Amino acid sequence: MGLTASYTEAVLVTPVIGQPGDIHSTAQNALGTKSKDQFGNDYVYLGGVVSTVEGMAATFDEAGVVTLLAANAKGPVAWATGAIVAAKFGWWARKGNLLGRVAANTADNALLGRETTDGEIGDGRAAGDQIYGVMSRVATGAAAALSSIQVYTDAFVDDVYGS
């Protein structure tokens, strides 16, 4: 049970403003606010970052500052539920059956990490760029795609493990 095609079917069930996929011009919740949807997936409210599209992975800090997942990144990881770009705010997916921007030719049931494009994940997992606690749940074809991933713990990257 969970998301299969879009975050628009998710409804946050704790008292907060907005839903996954909503983009706010001003912060509507305190940065770092957490919520769950009706499927049990976890979300965190954060600011946006340049070039973000739905499914991109990012790290964030204690102040809610977001950086697209880049080589040698460190910190907790969340996935954009929409185009939460710079100077915008919204809900980032944190744990559960989620959607991620997954690189071309990624295998089903693979460990995931940063691939060649910042914010994109795949099974290439360059050295130091593996994300702990996340796996692909379908294989991707010849192009990067929004795809099912499972995040079974509070995902993070620490610049240690990878291919």
Compose a concise summary of this entry.
By secondary structure, the chain is mainly β. The protein contains no helices and 11 strands. A hairpin with an 8-residue loop joins β6 and β7.
Observed structural traits:
163 residues, 0% helix, mainly beta, eleven-stranded antiparallel β-sheet
Q: What would you note in describing this structure?
A:
- This protein is 0% helix and 39% strand.
- It is mainly β and 163 residues long.
- Strands 1, 2, 3, 4, 5, 6, 7, 8, 9, 10 and 11 form an 11-stranded antiparallel sheet that branches.
- Strand 8 (111-114) and strand 9 form a beta hairpin.
- It is globular.
- The N and C termini lie far apart (31 Å).
Number of strands: 11
Which class best fits the helix and strand makeup? mainly beta
Residue-averaged pLDDT, rounded?
92
Q: Strand share of the residues?
A: 35-45%
Helical content (DSSP H or I, runs of 4+): under 10%
Low-confidence stretches: none
Count of separate DSSP helical elements = 0
Distance between the termini: 31 Å
The helix/strand series, from N terminus to C terminus, equals: EEEEEEEEEEE
The largest sheet, given as strand count, sense and whether it forms a barrel, is: 11 strands, antiparallel
Shape: globular
Rg estimate, integer Å: 14 Å
